[in-house]
Write a structure and sequence with these properties.
Layout: E1 8-16, E2 27-30, E3 37-39, E4 56-64, E5 71-72, E6 76-78, E7 86-91, E8 107-111, E9 125-127, E10 130-132, E11 135-137, E12 146-148
Antiparallel strand pairs: 1-2, 1-3, 1-4, 4-5, 4-6, 7-8, 9-12, 10-11
């Protein structure tokens, strides 16, 4: 019977370079949210709230504990979230003249909770309002004031 003293296991999230999937030797450390270190109980460390906000491919966990050989998870992907969290203006309107259209029209992106562009979103209608200070202004124009997203844009 071998008894191992309690150990503190730490999780790190890595992302392998897509060109190096077989060896996964070219890695980037990715921000990981949650409790990244857990004490072993009966030889097991159980993580309960780890989270990543960035969608991507070729992720893997690396687990380390003092005096022990580290472990690696299999590769996995993180998908874009399915819940709209934020509309972000990525192109500001420019070049308006009274009675005319903007030379450069505004463009928005739909973002999930991890601030990933929701490229699969194509049915959300967005309406524009004109604000002067904190007041909404009723504007009359023949131009469209609403737009539907196409691939997150």
């Amino acid at each position: 019977l071998v008894t191992v003293a309690s150990s503190l296991v730490t999780a790190t999230l890595l992302q392998c370079a897509p060109a190096d999937l077989l060896n996964c030797s070219a890695v980037t450390v990715v921000p990981l949210i949650g409790t990244k270190s857990k004490q072993t109980v009966d030889g097991k460390a159980t993580f309960t709230n780890l989270r990543i906000d960035r969608a991507g491919k070729c992720y893997r966990f690396k687990f380390d504990a003092p005096g022990l050989l580290g472990g690696l998870s299999t590769l996995f992907d993180v998908q874009i979230g399915s819940f709209l969290s934020l509309l972000e203006v990525v192109q500001q309107p420019v070049g308006a003249t009274a009675g005319g259209s903007f030379n450069l029209q505004p463009q928005l992106v739909a973002l999930d909770g991890g601030l990933n562009v929701m490229t699969t979103l194509s049915s959300l209608a967005v309406s524009a309002s004109l604000l002067v200070g904190a007041s909404k202004v009723d504007f009359h124009t023949s131009s469209r004031r609403s737009q539907t997203f196409d691939a997150g844009l």
